Model the fold of this input.
Amino acid sequence: MDPLERLLAERACERLVVDFVHRLDLGEPSSVAELFTEDGTWEWPAGERLVEGRDALREYFGSRPVDRLSRRLMSNVLVTVTSPGTATATSYFSTYRVDGYQGGIVPAGPPVQVGHYEDTFRRTTEDGTWLLTSRTLHLPFGGDTPRAGGRERTRPPAPTATSQPPPTAG
Done:
């Protein structure tokens, strides 16, 4: 592959990684199935979950609680193009999430998950679009999803005359 083709392939795969979490957090969760090949898989070996096929992926991600608020931070996306039609990637993520969300601002807490994904991609023959063929979740840090409290604030509290600025890192 020439350098431009490689760069375009890497960018297309990076876009899938980011689009996946965007759809979960801000879009329609079941639509992540469209980012996979028809026979695509999502797996969490430690949680003994394997979801195979676009229809099963649509159902699995679409079953997310409707009152769930989540934001995922993706970083360190490293795509390796292995051939003109295949690629792999590793990406790190942190997930902030609560159930029972009814609007407003939820007090910040630690992430409920920190881990990484290992992905494989394939360029489709029909139009050259890149899609996920597999996504495997590795979760070394995880916990239960908390429920939003009944007293969420609609805006941060106003500073008072006695407020101290937060400490700065040295």
